[in-house]
Amino acid sequence: MPIEKHLKRIRTQLAYPKISIQLSILGLIAGLCASAFIIAFRWCLDNIQLLYLATPDDFTGLDEHFRFILPFIGAGLIALVGIFTQFKHFRLGIPFVIYRLKIFYGMMPIRNTINQFFGGIIAMGSGFSVGREGPAVHLGAGAASYFAAWLKLPYNSVRTLSACGMAAAISASFNTPLAAVIFVMEVVLREYKTHIFVPVMLASVAGAWANRLVFGHEHDLSGLHIHLLGIEHYPYLVFMGLIVGCFAFAFNRQLLEVIRSVRSVNMLPRLFLSALITAIIGFLVPQALGTGLGAIYVAQGNIDNAQLLMTIFIAKAALTIFAIGLGIPGGVIGPILGLGTMLGTLLALVASIFIGNVGDFADMYGVLGLAALMAACLNAPLAALVTALEMTYNPEIIAPAMVVIVSAHVISNQLFRNRSLFILQLELQKLDYQIPPTYDILQKTGVQAAMERNFILVKTQDEKVVRRALDRAGKRPVIYKEIVDDSVHFKLVNYDVSLDPNTKTPFKFEELQGVESRYTLAEPYEILQQKRRGSVYIFEQDLDNIIGVLSWNQLRLRLTKGSYQEFE
Predict the structure, then answer these.
(1) Among candidate residues 83, 98, 142, the one with its CA nearest the CA of residue 116
(2) Which 8-state DSSP code applies to residue 510?
(3) Which residues pair with 422 in a beta bridge?
(4) pLDDT digits over 401-452, tens only?
(5) What CATH number labels 2-434?
(6) In this model, does residue 296 exceed pLDDT 80?
(7) C-beta separation of 389 from 181 below 8 A
(8) Exposed (0-12), middle (13-18) or buried (19+): which is 18, by Cβ within 10 Å?
(9) 497-532 burial: b if 16+ Cβ within 10 Å, else e
(10) Start-end ranges of CATH 1.10.3080.10 in the chain?
(11) Span 445-561: which CATH code?
(12) Triad 133, 137, 140: Cα angle to 5°
């Protein structure tokens, strides 16, 4: 069929680690698929909350008795979703996505995605202190990887499209296209490659377009009053960064301690313990419930009430630590943004002692706290800076944010040896996210980019036929196809130069192991690295459909010279 022929050509093109029109278009489509998932997720969440809340994510007007019961209802529904999809598939959120991206090219299990979609809606609808960016990244990666799997694309391009889905999902959630790109490259992929960067940008644009089409053009912090800070504020900003850096270390440490303490406990008791803690604290401090963006508006509306802000801040931190630590399906970035804003606002009140009245700059200090805490907790200074810039839509935030982010990041990283919360979670869960540099290089190139397509296939061991094939082969490999008991085997044929007088044939037959055409060079390397010689054959769909041969020497050249045959 013509469509299948075009798809085969596209798959071959995508095996190369370089930018192409095909990859860019597929990245855009993957972004649209991810955006559809996130728009549905956010629409369901908002409309469910409007059944019992006057404003989404604002639990202050809810009857106090219902507010106490709501987390238990949510925990029960999350447990039902978990039972339906099996608890072993309950690893969710950004840490799990990073693990799948590194080890499985971003392919997401369908049951995890179902858990994340329904579990995330229930968790946020029940008032748990979790953010929507964790489900967004998970669902975006899932949607894009299912699209790539449907087209049977090479796994190196599946990884790129998964990154596209994540960027589109974040952009569709927060209307921050540039911050979404930087977050994916800095926090998830942790590398900058042009052939990945371009389709990720297109996907992020698709996500922002989808968000604005459905939810409008407003940004979450666009209503804040941002005023340019004078030079007299900058020494205090350094001090502010130090305080935020210390809190970031304490927050990460306490969250990890909770995870470590309950990792041997079954999911059901953990869910209801989290519900109990959320119910008690939410009954007393309803402003601390929700995703974290509500806390930003609380800080904005109570600039002069230090006691209330401190109470909400402590309650919000405790709710977040226990919700995430006990396994509630949601993200941590939303609560971090809320905590950072409240901490920055509290520090603005302290600044009044040294600088004078800073009431007009309280919103600015709140945004600076948001950016600094995100940078220090997630080890993502650039993503934090761009997030603050896009969420406020005000360039006056850039210079002071740089000062606070740098000081918070340095004190957290160097003095306390704090690292990204996501990486710490992966290590605690014993999910291997690191791969050797050799594999990292080879995973970026598909086998179709390096294999030898021009080979001679013989189907008999007749000496004349084999000799004739070898004599006219030149540098082309000669492959013998053998059928034994309806099982197909391929062998590489060469002249036997061992000079052994007992050999019955002048030829040497070397058994070849098959590698599917969607795989990258890492899989043949894994097969051949012990012997450091030999070859594998590449098949498409069926084991007997050989389309190429890949030798150890070709892998060695790829590693040492970075060369591969150009597709035509």
Answers:
(1) 142
(2) E
(3) none
(4) 999 999 999 999 888 988 899 998 888 888 877 788 888 889 889 999 889 8
(5) 1.10.3080.10
(6) no
(7) no
(8) middle
(9) eeeeeeeeeebebeebebbbbbbbbbbbbebbeeee
(10) 2-434
(11) 3.10.580.10
(12) 130
